[in-house]
Amino acid sequence: MKAVWIAMMVVGLVGMIVCSKKQKSNPAMQPVAFALFIVVVIGAVMLLKGMMGGGNSQILNKEMAFAHSRGYVVGKFLGAKAPGKKVLFVADPSYAQSKTGSALLDGFKEGYGSDNVVLDNVKPSKTSEEMSIEELMTPADMDTLLAAHSDAGVIVTTIGLPQKARNMKYFSQKGEKPVLFLLSSGMSGNNLGKYIEKGEIAGGLINNIKADYRAEAAKTPEDTFKIRYILVDQSNIKQHMGMFE
Fold first, then answer.
1. Cα–Cα distance, 12 to 43 (Å, whole number)
2. Beta strands of 114-151 (E only): which ranges?
3. Any idea what DSSP says for residue 161?
4. 124, 203, 207, 231 — which has fewest CB within 10 A?
5. What share of the chain is helix, strand, coil (3-state, %, to 5)?
């Protein structure tokens, strides 16, 4: 049954991605996206129930291996572009407290070749219990965070960029600026692919829609990464532009 719940989650996630791309032109997609979200939640709950049997540790170790591979590959990619810099990880401080978050950070430090990594998060000027930080944060909020870490040479964001990201000071900054990488592209509507194409954003991470989530981790982080993920940069952005709209 685990395969059924995993398949349900994958189908739901893919459907949500498709709907999110179409919501701007077709508002009717919003309730469909919500329904697919419920499908994902149900699949996750049932999968967790199945994990309570005895395979919990094995599954957790597997997910930690995949998280480690994400961090390792991204770290190695950025280490080649901007080695030895302070890295700002835009993420909630509790990110490192989860086992998968900790595995990703460990993998990143290993791949990047340095443990000079600082976690900090955007503090939106507005708050709302109904809205996520991705929805609430503004370009000015992100500017404030980056200004507080002006000595960072690399920025990795787990929450994407705010809506109207083009208004961020980062994109109008002249001269040398930090290398920016998207572990998540965040809210739709920013057309971030064009920034990757121009080299203003170093790259981004996306899930491979053809991934086999039943597959075990491979022997190396690089091969493990290839099972589920794709690193997008200037070399392949044209193939994946739709994932960064």
1. 9
2. 117-120
3. B
4. 207
5. 55, 10, 35
Write the pLDDT tens digit of every residue in 65-82: 999 999 999 999 999 999
Contact 191, 34 (CB under 8 A): no
- Burial (Cβ within 10 Å: 0-12, 13-18, ≥19) of residue 42: middle
The Cα 99–Cα 79 span in angstroms is 24
pLDDT in tens, 187-224: 767 899 999 999 999 999 999 988 999 999 999 999 99
DSSP 177: -
pTM of the model: 0.77
- The token pair at 138 is 């503004």
Distance CA(158)–CA(14), nearest Å, equals 19
Paired tokens of 69: 């591979």
